[in-house]
Design brief:
There is one protein chain. The protein is α/β, with parallel strands linked by helices. The protein has two domains: about 280 residues, Glycoside hydrolase/deacetylase (TIM Barrel, Alpha-Beta Barrel); about 140 residues, no CATH class. It is about 40% helix and about 10% strand. The chain is built from 16 helices and 16 strands. The strands form five sheets. Strands 1, 2, 3, 7, 8 and 9 form a six-stranded parallel beta sheet that branches. α6 runs parallel beside α7, α12 packs across α15 and α13 crosses α14. Bound molecules: zinc ion (ZN). The site of zinc ion has 6 residues, from loops.
Length: about 500
C-alpha cells in the first residue's frame, strides 16, 4: 500500500514537475518573426497616434511588437499628456533608439575621431540620457538598441553592455556575417539579414507580393533548421510623405527647435490604406503555420552563446590551433563557436598552463573586446625561446583579465608582436604539441576583418550626415573588434 501510494505520488509529482514539451517539439523547425518599430518622430504630433494604433494592433491579437523609443520621443509623449499612447506601447516590448536620433551630432559624427575608450564614454554620456528617460517612463530597460539612420559606431557596443542591453537590432551593412545573426563585441546582432529582412509597401498588390515572399523565405528557413525574420517600420511613415528628420536635419543642418518644420503628410485615405496594408501583412504572418512572433526581449534566449556556459576541452583547443593554421577567424567547434579573439585567449591559456609534459584539462574563457588600437611598431621576423613565448601568453591573459580587452601589442623577450602574429605562432606550437626549443615567429592576418565594412562613401549615405561624411579611423577601430565576431547559433527547437 505504502509503496504503491509512493509510486502514484511519484508519477503524479513527475507529471506536475516535468516541463511541458514546447509546442514546436514534434513539429517542423520554428520560424521566428520579430516586428520592430523605430518610434522616433518627436515633431509631428499625429505620429503619437500612429504608434498607439500599431501597438494596439498587436495587443488585440495577443502578440507583441518591439517599439524602439527615441528618448526625446518618450519625453514629448509625457509632455503632451499622452498617457494613452504610453500605456498602449507598454503592453508591447520597449527598446531603445538613441536620445535625439537625427539632431547633430549623431553617434557616428561624435565618435568619428575618438579613441575606443573616449567613444565608449561619449556614447554613454550622450545616449544614457535618453535611455534614462525611456526607463523612467516605461519602467523597463530597453530590450535592444538600433542606431539612428546609418549612424553606427563600434564604440556603442561596449556602451550597450554597460547599459545591460544584450541585443543590437537594426538594418545596416557596417558589420555583417553572411546575412544572419552574429556576435560582435559580446552583443548579439540582427542587422543585414538578406532576404530575411522584410517590409511591405502600402498597395494591396505589394502586400500580396510580400506575403508570397514570406512564404518562400520561411520555407527556406525551415529547411535550414529554423531561423528569424526581421520586419521593421516607423509609426510616422504611416502618416507622412517625408521623414520628420529629413525635413529638418538633412546634410548636417541643425536648426533650433523654434524653427523645426512639420513634415508633409499623406491624405487620410492614404493613411488608412497604409494601416490596412500593414494589418493584412501582420495577420498573414501571425496566422502562418510554424511561425512564432518574438520580441527583442525574447531573442537573446533563442541564441545562447555556449562558449561561456562551460570550459573548453583540450580537443577544442587543438581544433582552434588547426583552424588558425588555415585562417585567423571564428572557429566552429561543433557544439559552439569561438571568435578569433576567444580562440587566441584559449591558446594562450593552454600554453601558459602547460609545463613539461603537463597539459591543462580544461580552459575557462572570459569575454574580452578586441584591441583598442593597432601597433605602429612591431617585429615581423625572428625566433624566440619557448619560455619567452609562454611568458608572453601569460602576460596576454593577465592584461585581458584586468582590462577586459585584448592588448594592442604582446611583448615577447622585450619585442613588440602583433596579436595576429602571436596567435598563429601559438597555434603552430599547439598544433604540433611542440612546447620547447626555439620558436619561429609566424605572420598572420585577421581574416575576420572582412566582415567589417571598409570606409567608403556608400557606407555613409544617410541623408542626415553632412555632405562628404566619412569615418576611416572609426572603421579601423571597428575592424579591430572583428576579433570578437562569430555566428550566433539558434537554440534547437526540435
Ligand atoms: Zn530611426
Amino acid at each position: 500500500m505504502k509503496t504503491s501510494y509512493r509510486l502514484i505520488t511519484g508519477v503524479f509529482l513527475w507529471t506536475l514537475l516535468s516541463p511541458a514539451l514546447p509546442p514546436a517539439a514534434q513539429a517542423e523547425p520554428t520560424v521566428y518573426v520579430t516586428f520592430w518599430f523605430d518610434t522616433e518622430d518627436y515633431i509631428l504630433p499625429q505620429a503619437d497616434d500612429a504608434a498607439k494604433r500599431l501597438a494596439e494592433m498587436f495587443t488585440k491579437r495577443g502578440v507583441q511588437g518591439t517599439f524602439k523609443m527615441v528618448g526625446e520621443k518618450a519625453r514629448v509623449l509625457e509632455e503632451r499628456g499622452r498617457d494613452d499612447v504610453i500605456l498602449a506601447l507598454s503592453k508591447n516590448d520597449i527598446a531603445y533608439h538613441s536620445t535625439w536620433h537625427s539632431a547633430h551630432p549623431t553617434p557616428s559624427e561624435y565618435c568619428r575621431d575618438l579613441s575606443w575608450q573616449e567613444g565608449v564614454s561619449e556614447f554613454i554620456r550622450r545616449e544614457g540620457v535618453g535611455l534614462e528617460t525611456v526607463r523612467r517612463i516605461f519602467g523597463v530597460n530597453g530590450s535592444c538598441y538600433g542606431q539612428p539612420g546609418g549612424s553606427w559606431t563600434p564604440q556603442s557596443y561596449a556602451a550597450l553592455r554597460s547599459f545591460g542591453i544584450p541585443l543590437y537590432l537594426d538594418v545596416t551593412s557596417h558589420v555583417n556575417l553572411n546575412d544572419r545573426p552574429f556576435w560582435y563585441c559580446g552583443v548579439l546582432n540582427i542587422l543585414e539579414m538578406g532576404d530575411c529582412v522584410m517590409r511591405t509597401g502600402w498597395k494591396d498588390e505589394e502586400v500580396k507580393q510580400a506575403c508570397a515572399k514570406f512564404d518562400r523565405v520561411s520555407q527556406k528557413l525551415v529547411q535550414a533548421g529554423g531561423g528569424i525574420v526581421s520586419i521593421y517600420y516607423h509609426p510616422c511613415e504611416f502618416l507622412h510623405r517625408q521623414f520628420w528628420d529629413g525635413v529638418n536635419f538633412s546634410y548636417g543642418a541643425n536648426p533650433p527647435r523654434s524653427e523645426w518644420k512639420l513634415p508633409p503628410t499623406k491624405s487620410p485615405e492614404e493613411q488608412e490604406q497604409a494601416f490596412k496594408a500593414f494589418e493584412t501583412f501582420l495577420d498573414y504572418i501571425a496566422h502562418h503555420a510554424g511561425v512564432r512572433l518574438v520580441t527583442a526581449r525574447q531573442i537573446p534566449t533563442l541564441y545562447p552563446d555556449r562558449v561561456y556556459s562551460g570550459p573548453l576541452t583540450p580537443k577544442d583547443v587543438q581544433a582552434i590551433a588547426e583552424a588558425f593554421g588555415k585562417r585567423l577567424s571564428y572557429v566552429d567547434l561543433g557544439t559552439r563557436i569561438v571568435s578569433a579573439g576567444e580562440g587566441l585567449l584559449a591558446l594562450a591559456q593552454f600554453v601558459a598552463q602547460s609545463e613539461g609534459e603537463h597539459r591543462p584539462d580544461k580552459i575557462e574563457l572570459e569575454f574580452a573586446y578586441g584591441p583598442a588600437s593597432a601597433p605602429q611598431r612591431f617585429l615581423r621576423e625572428g625566433s624566440f625561446r619557448w619560455e619567452a613565448i609562454r611568458q608572453g601568453a601569460q602576460e596576454l591573459i593577465d592584461i585581458t583579465h584586468q582590462t577586459k580587452q585584448m592588448p594592442t601589442v604582446i611583448w615577447v623577450a622585450g619585442q613588440p608582436l602583433r596579436p595576429e602574429d602571436f596567435a598563429v605562432t601559438l597555434a603552430a606550437a599547439v598544433a604540433a604539441d611542440r612546447f620547447a626549443g626555439e620558436v619561429p615567429l609566424r605572420q598572420g592576418e585577421l581574416e575576420a576583418k572582412k566582415f567589417v565594412a571598409n570606409d567608403a562613401p556608400g557606407l555613409w549615405g544617410w541623408v542626415i550626415f553632412p555632405k562628404g561624411f566619412n569615418a576611416p579611423h572609426m572603421m579601423e577601430l571597428a575592424k579591430l573588434q572583428a576579433w570578437t565576431i562569430k555566428p550566433a547559433v539558434l537554440r534547437k527547437t526540435n
